Amino acid sequence: MHDRFHQYSHNVAQYVRHATGKEKSAIRKELTDHMEDHAQALLDGGFPEDHACRAAVESMGDPETVGKALNKEYPLRWLLLSWLIWLVVLAMALVLVLALYHGLQGAAGSLEARYAPREDHPSFSIPEAELVPLDLTETLPNGDVVHFYAAAVEDQEKYPDRGYVGHLYAVTYNRNPLRDPLYYDALLDLSASTPKEEMLINSEFSFQGKATYFHWVIYFVHPTEPVTVQYDRHGTSFTLEIPLPWEEVSGS
C-alpha cells in the first residue's frame, strides 16, 4: 500500500520546482498521509485492500496537474531567498573560521614575542657587534607591552670622526595574545646626551603575527651614555634608561 502512495507523492513533488527540499518532503508526507487515511476508511467499509489503495490514489487526481497547481503556491522568489540565506550563513561561517584561524596563527607570534623574542627575531640589519640581551618592559593602559630585549654598540673604528653607533631592539605585543598591539615606534622618543644636531636615528619594523618588532640605529652616541626612551601619550607617560653594552667595545 505504501509503495503506491509514495510513488504518487514523488511524481507530484517533481512538478513543485520552486519548493525547497524540506518543503518537498513535507508535501510528499502530507499527500501520503491523506491517501493512507482515505484507503483506511475504505478498508474499514469492507473494500478489498487493492481496491482501497487504487481508489485513494485515483481520488487525488493527475500527479502532473496537482504538482503544477502546488508549484504556484511556492513562488521562485522564496526559493531564491532560501538560497540567499544559506549563502549568507555559509559566508559568515567562512569569515568566522578565517578570523579564528588568523587569530590563533597571530597568537603564536604574540607568545613567541613575550617568551623568546630573539628566536623569533625578524631579518633586521644585524650589526657586526654582538647583540647583548636586555629585559626592560613597560605595560601601557590598553594592555600593550613594550619590551626592549637586545642592544649593541659598534665601535668607532668604522666611524673614526663621528663616534659610536648604538642599536636597540624591541617588540610590542598585547597581554591578550589574540589582540594586535596598537602602539608603534613613532610614539616613542629616543634621546641621548649627544646633541640632537649630531645624532640621527633610523628605524625599521616587522610584523610577526600579533607582535611588532623594532630596530633603532642611533648615529652617533658618546661612550658610556645610555639611551633614554620616553613615552607621553593619552594621559600615560614613562621613561626608560636603556644601557648600551659599552663593555663590548671598551674591553672592560
Write up this protein.
With 252 residues, the protein is of the alpha+beta class. It has two domains: 2-74, no CATH class; 119-250, Immunoglobulin-like (Sandwich). Helices cover 39% and strands 26% of the residues. The chain has six helices and eight strands. It has helices spanning 2-13, 21-44, 49-58, 63-71, 76-115, 247-250; strands at 132-139, 144-154, 164-174, 189-191, 200-207, 211-221, 227-233, 236-242. The strands form two sheets. Strands 1-2-3-6-5 form a five-stranded antiparallel beta sheet. The protein has a three-stranded antiparallel beta sheet with strand order 4-7-8, with no helix packed on it. β1 and β2 (144-154) form a beta hairpin. α1 packs antiparallel against α2 and α1 packs across α4 (63-71). The chain is rod-shaped, with a radius of gyration of 38 Å. The termini are far apart.
